[in-house]
Amino acid sequence: MTQQETSATQPNPADLVGGLARAGRKAQTRLARLSGPEKAQALQLAAQGLRAAEAEILAANELDLAAARKAGLAEAMLDRLALDAGRIEAVASAVEAVAALPDPVGQKIDRTQRPNGLVLERVRVPIGLLGIIYESRPNVTADAAALCVRAGNAVLLRGGSEAVHSNRAIHAAMVGGLVKGGVPAEAVQLIPTQDRAAVGAMLAAAGLIDMIIPRGGKSLVARVQADARVPVLAHLDGICHTYIHQAADPEMARSVAHNAKLRRTGICGAMETLLLDATFPDSPALLGDLLDAGCELRGDPRAQAMDSRILPAAAEDWDTEYLEAILSVAVVDGLDDALAHIAAHSSGHTDVIVTQDEVAAEQFLAIVDSAIVMVNASSQFADGGEFGLGAEIGIATGRLHARGPVALEGLTTYKWLVRGTGQIRP
Predict the structure, then answer these.
(1) How many Å apart are CA 405 and CA 333, to the nearest integer?
(2) Do the domain assignments include residue 425?
(3) Residue at 394 is within a domain
(4) CATH number at residue 91
(5) Burial status of residue 414 (CB atoms within 10 A of its CB: 0-12, 13-18, 19 or more)
(6) Residue 395: strand pairing partners
């Protein structure tokens, strides 16, 4: 069966996913035998394939954008979906960046020797077959494929219907290059149907799919976490806070806040709540900058008192991921008050303090229990590439297995290697 077959000729979703999963598992055993340099070369060829297919990818993306505009998708969603020559180059460069990273497979985590002479090592190994379910962003097709191949995993990709043509074009270009490099085509498969039942079949494929990674909106991730019979690596909302401490440098505070919210409003690392210390002297100017730049502010009464353009915040605003030029603003009475607000409303993604007080900064770093905690930097740095990890598969906000930007290390597990000299247990 080819990726282009119509739904009329496809088996039912459970049989479809089962067949693809079995083919993927078989391909993964072949992929696992490739050396690090061989996988890197295959990814270099995949990046070349993306650049060579630029015209086809842009034409496919225009079909998706036209349908999205007709359906009335929000500007933030259109921004996530849109590709241009620069973004395609960025996607190809990200694949090359993954190829250049050290191969995690076979890395020794630690080595110990027991009193009885047994030598124990833990080494990184691939997880196996991953299922990745995502929405909107077609670059995820390439990022996911690159990371999975580099870490020795096969992958089943299921993109959103709004990016179906873009995903197919990127997938075809990627696989063409990978196959030239000796990677089995079945190691990177794109589910050839947009039938939502296929997602259900992936979630039920225990024993065939080793881990599910959802990347998308709250409803998608919540469904995956509720219905999956397969382990899930996920995050929900990116409700990111920036706290402007009383000892913040005013110019730095204005620059960081502006960038954190408005550089790109549609990414999960965008600031959604601004906390202003009641004794920070430059709050009116900082808020004025944001308002003048076209950002809608929804504030508590003390924030509203600083500028008549600020709208009243409703209770749900403190728990909303806007993904557009809307920001909730609260005035807090010191560090403890800020920490309490973050504990009550943060989604555990990324939270920031801006301050010149090192003691306050260290307290913030120690107490805030988010996957990423920052001092004096924009939350928009919450990205695997910016962390030096190459492309990322997503940002995990849970506490198990992987946390924060999930890149190569997060896509491996480990096994124990035990070497003896004839020891028997008494």
Answers:
(1) 32
(2) no
(3) no
(4) 3.40.605.10
(5) middle
(6) 405
In our burial notation (b when 16+ CB lie closer than 10 A, e otherwise), range 169-182 reads bbbbbbbbbbbebe
Does residue 226 share a domain with residue 339? no
| Sheet containing 350-354: order of strands | 311-312, 296-299, 326-332, 271-277, 240-244, 350-354, 372-375
pLDDT, mean of residues 143-151: 95
Pick from 395, 351, 337: nearest CA to 240: 351
**329 and 215 part of one domain:** no
- Are 53 and 153 contained in the same domain? yes
Grade residue 8 by pLDDT with cuts at 50, 70 and 90: low
Burial label, 188 (beta-carbon count in 10 A; 0-12, 13-18, 19+): buried
Report the domain count for the chain.
Answer: 2
Site of tokens 């550089």? 263
pTM: 0.82
**Residue 94 to residue 96: CA distance in whole angstroms:** 5
**pLDDT digits over 90-111, tens only?**
999 999 999 999 999 999 999 9
Asked if 418 and 120 count as a contact pair (C-beta separation under 8 A), the reply is yes
146's CB contacts (< 8 A; 6+ apart) are 43, 46, 94, 95, 98, 99, 174, 390, 391
- Give the structural domain span for 123: 11-234+403-417
Q: What is the pLDDT of residues 221-236, one digit of tens each?
A: 888 989 999 999 877 6
167 and 298 belong to one structural domain: no
Same-domain check for residues 245 and 195: no
pLDDT band at 9 (very low <50, low <70, confident <90, very high): low
Q: For residue range 377-392, what is the model confidence (pLDDT) as tens digits?
A: 999 999 988 988 877 7
Same domain, 258 and 314: yes
Residue 1 has pLDDT above 60, yes or no: no
